[in-house]
Design brief:
It is a single chain. By secondary structure, the chain is α+β, with helices and mostly antiparallel strands. Helix content is 23%, strand content 35%. The chain has eight helices and 20 strands. A hairpin with a 2-residue loop joins strand 12 and strand 13. Helix 2 packs across helix 3 and helix 2 packs parallel to helix 4. It is globular, with a radius of gyration of 24 Å.
């Protein structure tokens, strides 16, 4: 088998550091991705994900570390290697569409080929093919500013792909689109990548975008990789309290009571008890302070057999369309639930059930 298709062999990032004065934007970041794979860097603002992308692109120079793309070292502080951005054979799609208003759609898309001094006939043929691929063949002669936001983003994507880069970088590329168009473009990107097979790194703070596009996910925090795994792994079993909070889970302080293999029973401050699954192979002793992490969608306001119920008071309800979000009080602890409307009003006493495999117990 071609080694370039093995995970981590096409892109290698090793111990990359970047400082701005006393601030350490990247603190020894390492990861890899295989050829044709899709990797997402996910995290809140200021976590270092965009700085990492700019270092890969050659738009920022790391203080130390190594970056390799397709077997070529593009940066190595130890060996004094730092290839300019234009020599790294990359395509970049930015948050802003960055289309040139004085050019037509075709001229915008063909610009990377013209600066490479490709023959005019070849430029025309490749631009026509790429515009057909992104569904803009009919708009070749239009001014780019005559297009909608979603169409302008397709122009930016076509321009990034036209010179057949070995790696395409997306910097919050869908964040300027409205919700419906963002969902549509996310699916279009997925189909386009499956068709063309380019390697991609997406930088985003949007969890849905990262889960929907990536085969592998890195969650960053304070310049470091907090966790790495498949989107399903990261979603189903958050590895740290930071990830649980970032993904929007309920994170409740609790006391460890007893352990049963990989399962545990914990007590909330108000006295209510929960059963959960120990995360990360933990085995905290009885009396330890722990955190119970529960996805809002896993909090049910109905009684189920074989599941110990919790008694809660409804504080507030917010209509979300197909569901409602409820704020509940369980012995002084706040718990949020998302589920189909139950018709409750603030002050109602409700019964809550949470299965043990839907509650993850972590150390603080």
């Amino acid at each position: 088998m071609d080694g370039s298709n093995e995970p981590g062999s096409f892109i290698r990032i090793e111990r990359v550091e970047k400082r701005y004065g006393a601030h350490r934007a990247l603190d020894g970041v390492s990861f890899g991705a295989g050829k044709g794979h899709t990797l997402a860097l996910l995290g809140p603002s200021g976590c270092g994900k965009t700085t990492m992308l700019r270092c890969i692109a050659g738009l920022e120079t790391p203080d130390s570390g190594m970056i390799e793309i397709g077997g070529q070292t593009v940066f190595d502080s130890a060996r004094g290697i730092n290839l300019p951005a234009e020599e790294r054979q990359l395509g970049i799609v930015f948050q802003s569409y960055a289309v040139w208003p004085h050019m037509t759609v075709a001229e915008n898309v063909g610009f990377p080929l013209r600066v490479r001094r490709m023959q005019k006939a070849d430029v025309t043929a490749r631009v026509s093919r790429m515009l057909d691929i992104v569904g803009l063949g009919h708009a070749a002669g239009k001014s780019a500013t005559q297009l909608s936001g979603g169409q302008q983003q397709r122009v930016a994507l076509a321009r990034a792909l036209i010179h057949e880069p070995r790696l395409v970088l997306f910097d919050e590329a869908l964040s300027n689109l409205d919700a419906a168009l963002r969902e549509h473009m996310r699916m279009e990107l997925k189909v386009l990548q499956d068709r063309l097979g380019f390697t991609a790194i997406y930088v985003t703070h949007d969890q849905t975008e990262a889960f929907g596009l990536a085969e592998r996910l890195l969650v960053m925090n304070a310049g470091r990789v907090e966790t790495e795994g498949s989107p399903r792994e990261v979603f189903r079993c958050p590895a740290t309290p930071f990830i649980a909070r970032f993904l929007g889970l309920n994170v409740l302080e609790a006391e460890m009571l007893r352990q049963h293999g990989e399962r545990a029973e914990v007590r909330l401050p108000g006295g209510a008890t929960l059963r959960g699954t120990l995360g990360g192979g933990l085995a905290p002793p009885a009396g330890s302070r722990v955190l119970a992490c529960i996805r809002k969608e896993h909090v049910r306001l109905t009684r189920e057999p074989d599941v110990p119920p919790l008694h809660a008071e409804l504080r507030a309800a917010s209509f979300l369309g197909l569901a409602e979000e409820y704020v509940l009080d369980i012995g002084g602890a706040e718990l949020r639930a998302v589920q189909p409307p139950c018709g409750g009003v603030p002050g109602d006493r409700l019964v809550v059930t949470i299965r043990s495999d839907e509650c993850v117990i972590l150390l603080p």
